[in-house]
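Problem 12. The chain below contains 401 residues. Write out its predicted structure in token notation.
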Amino acid sequence: MARAHALRSPVRRSRGMGLIDILIGMVIGLIGMIIVFQAFSVFEGQKRTTTAANDAQEAGLMALGLIERDLRMGGYGFFSANLLACSQLRWRRGAANETLDPFMPAQIVDGATNGPDTLRVSYSTSPFGATPSTLLQPFGGTVASLVVDNPARTGGNTSAAYRVGDQIVVGNAFSTLPCTRLQVSGIDNALIGQGVIAIGVAPTADAPHNPGAGDLTNLLPAGGYLARTAAPTTITNFGAFRRVEYRVVPDAVRGGALVTLDLNPLPGVAAADVVLADGVMTLQAQYGISANANDQSISNWVNASAAPWITPGIAEVGRIKAIRVAVVARSQLPERDNVQTLDIPCVNGSGTNANGPCAWRDTAGAPAPIIDLTGNAEWRRYRYRVYETIVPLRNVMWQSF
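Solution.
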């Protein structure tokens, strides 16, 4: 009997797993799955945050870089004898449609109720923009040509300063007359050996910006432009004449977009917005002004929301030495929970701003603009980046008024 018992014992030890063993294995497996999914959720959240921050960074840096590039050129060709040629520009927008616009290197249009500002920049694209010609004969519009001095010429008897199709600005910095934008339709080089040329400004296929013969007089100020030695009228070559507007428009999917608009379109052609960067929520800008035009240091920062900075005149334009710009970019993917509630509210000279980040550090005397992102009810679920810079208007600072 003892021998039989010894033979049966190994059979009982090899029967396999029991129910309790299976349940314990399932519990261990479920715990492992929970750990794996928890780790995946954490890493996915980190990936989402990193990707969102990269999107905002790319959009913000691209937007700021494009704006800064134009601002550094702002005002090139605007000055004669260290004076601003005029404060207003008259030009032909369409058939029998003359427009009078501010003539400024950089203009800020303030956004209402803390909305995005609009920034407009203008400058000459011609290498001769800094060397204007002088009007030698009165120009009243009855004859569609301007007689000017022109010492610059090529190896032959051809003007080097002007080409057919170039846009020119006629103005007198010593008067209060507005400037006039015209376009070169032809050049008479008969007297170029004597330093004199006649610039045609008749409407042609190559010069569509010029008004017709009957409208040219209406485009000029009363009495036209005089030819004087002491206080000369100047003609500046602006080439393609870069006049561009930057602003932020709402976007239902991406929150907002920075767009640019050509302010110098062909007559009869409606200019269209061109999207430069997605995910840009707002653009805020301020003028950096000096105590007087001859002072090159910035004494204060001001918004374009009150006189005289809503529509600066000649005296004010000379005081604008720099533009401060802030661009707020947003991540494209929302977080699962609110992330902005963890941030410390922005406190600056304009008051506590709990509805968005700070534009820049400010003082009570020069408060920064308020950034309000509450247009989107879920704005707190997104991540934001603020990129700001100060761009000196070197073409203004180089003048001695």
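Discussion. DSSP finds five helices and 22 strands in the chain. Students who got a different answer should revisit the alignment rule from Section 12.3.
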